[in-house]
C-alpha cells in the first residue's frame, strides 16, 4: 500500500516537474528568438518525453531494464491507440494529413518500430544495438533541422503569446528550469523504486507494472499538448507530436538505456506488448495512407487499446 502511494505521488511529481521544465524552457526559447517551429520541435517535443527518458535511464542504472522495455512499448502503444483515438474525438471531424513533412515522419516512425522490434525479439538489447538506435535518432534529428517545412506550418503558441513571452523575466525561468530538473530526477527515482517494490510485494513482473501504470502516466504530457493543439484547430501538430514521441521513445529512450545496461525483454513483453506495438505502428501507417484519419478510425484505435489492456492484465 505504501509503495502504491509513493508511486502515485512520485509519478505526479515527475509529471508536474516535467510540465514546469517544458514551460520554462519554451519561454526561454522564445526569449532567445528561436523560431516557433524550432521551439516546438526541440523544446516541447523533448520536454514532453522527459518522463520516459529519465525514468528509463534510472531504471537501467539500477539494473531493472524490464521497466525500460515495458515503459517504451507501453508508451508507444498508448501514444498511437489511446492518444490518437482521443485526438480524433476531440477534433470531431476527420484529421487531414496533407503536409509532406508528416509523411516523412510517418516513415521514420514505422522504421524505428521495425528496428527496435527486431532487437527486442532477440530477447536482449545490448550496447551495440543501443548505439545503432541512438545513431538512428541522430539521423532523424538531422532530418528535422535540414528538411524544408512549409512557411505556413502551424505552431502551438500564437503570435500574441510569443510577444508576451519575450517580455518575461528570464532569471525566473532559469530558476524554474533548474528546480524542475531536480524535481524530474527525484520524481523518476522514487517512481522507479516504487515500481520495483510493488513488483516484489505482489510477486509480478516489473515489466507489467511499467507497461500499464508507468507508461500510461508518462504519456500524459504528450496527451495534454496534443489535445491543446487539436482544440486550437491544429490537429496536425497533435499528429506530429504523436509521431515524434514514438520515434523518440523507440530510438532515443531505448538506445540510451541500452548503452547504460543491456535491456532484457521478458516473455510477457515479447509475446504480447511487442506484438501490439507492431500492430499499432503498422495500423497507423496504413490508415494514414489516404491522408486522413476519421473519428471512426479513432474509435477503432481506442478499441484496440482496451483489448491490449485487458490482454496485459489477463482478463482475455
What does this structure look like?
- Helix content is 81%, strand content 3%.
- The chain contains twelve helices and four strands.
- Strands 1-4 form a two-stranded antiparallel ribbon. The chain has a two-stranded antiparallel sheet with strand order 2-3.
- The chain is mainly alpha-helical and 316 residues long.
Instruction: Tell me the radius of gyration.
Output: 19 Å
> Sheet with the most strands?
2 strands, antiparallel
Assembly context of the chains: single chain
What's the level 1 CATH class? Mainly Alpha
**Low-pLDDT residue spans:** 150-154
What CATH architecture do you see?
Up-down Bundle
User: What is the beta-strand fraction?
Assistant: under 5%
Coarse structural class: mainly alpha
What's the total helix number? 12
List the helices and strands and how they pair.
Layout: H1 2-31, H2 36-61, H3 65-91, E1 95-96, H4 100-121, E2 124-125, H5 127-146, H6 159-165, H7 170-202, H8 206-218, H9 220-231, H10 235-260, E3 263-264, H11 267-287, E4 292-293, H12 295-312
Antiparallel strand pairs: 1-4, 2-3
Quick recap:
By secondary structure, this protein is mainly α. The chain contains 12 helices and 4 strands. The strands form 2 sheets. A two-stranded antiparallel sheet has the order 1-4.
Amino acid at each position: 500500500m505504501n509503495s502504491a502511494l509513493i508511486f502515485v505521488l512520485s509519478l505526479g511529481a515527475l509529471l508536474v516537474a516535467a510540465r514546469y521544465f517544458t514551460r520554462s524552457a519554451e519561454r526561454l526559447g522564445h526569449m532567445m528568438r528561436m523560431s516557433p517551429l524550432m521551439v516546438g520541435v526541440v523544446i516541447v517535443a523533448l520536454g514532453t518525453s522527459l518522463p520516459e527518458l529519465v525514468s528509463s535511464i534510472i531504471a537501467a542504472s539500477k539494473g531493472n531494464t524490464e521497466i525500460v522495455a515495458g515503459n517504451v512499448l507501453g508508451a508507444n502503444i498508448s501514444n498511437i491507440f489511446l492518444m490518437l483515438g482521443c485526438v480524433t474525438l476531440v477534433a470531431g471531424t476527420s484529421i487531414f494529413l496533407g503536409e509532406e513533412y508528416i509523411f516523412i515522419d510517418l516513415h521514420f516512425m514505422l522504421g524505428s518500430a521495425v528496428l527496435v522490434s527486431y532487437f527486442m525479439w532477440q530477447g536482449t538489447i545490448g550496447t551495440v544495438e543501443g548505439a545503432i538506435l541512438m545513431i538512428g535518432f541522430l539521423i532523424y534529428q538531422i532530418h528535422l533541422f535540414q528538411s524544408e517545412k512549409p512557411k505556413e506550418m502551424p505552431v502551438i503558441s500564437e503570435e500574441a503569446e510569443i510577444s508576451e513571452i519575450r517580455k518575461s523575466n528570464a532569471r525566473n525561468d532559469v530558476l524554474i528550469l533548474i528546480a524542475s530538473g531536480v524535481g524530474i530526477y527525484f520524481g523518476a527515482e522514487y517512481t522507479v523504486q516504487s515500481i520495483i517494490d510493488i513488483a516484489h510485494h505482489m510477486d509480478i513482473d516489473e515489466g507489467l507494472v511499467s507497461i500499464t501504470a508507468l507508461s500510461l502516466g508518462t504519456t500524459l504530457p504528450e496527451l495534454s499538448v496534443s489535445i491543446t493543439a487539436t482544440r486550437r484547430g491544429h490537429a496536425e501538430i497533435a499528429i506530429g507530436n504523436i509521431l515524434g514521441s514514438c520515434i523518440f521513445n523507440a530510438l532515443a529512450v531505448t538506445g540510451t538505456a541500452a548503452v547504460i545496461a543491456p535491456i532484457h525483454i521478458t516473455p510477457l513483453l515479447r509475446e504480447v506488448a511487442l506484438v501490439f506495438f507492431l500492430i499499432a505502428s503498422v495500423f497507423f501507417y496504413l490508415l494514414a495512407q489516404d491522408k486522413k484519419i476519421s473519428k471512426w478510425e479513432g474509435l477503432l484505435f481506442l478499441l484496440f487499446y482496451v483489448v491490449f489492456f485487458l490482454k496485459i492484465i489477463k482478463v482475455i
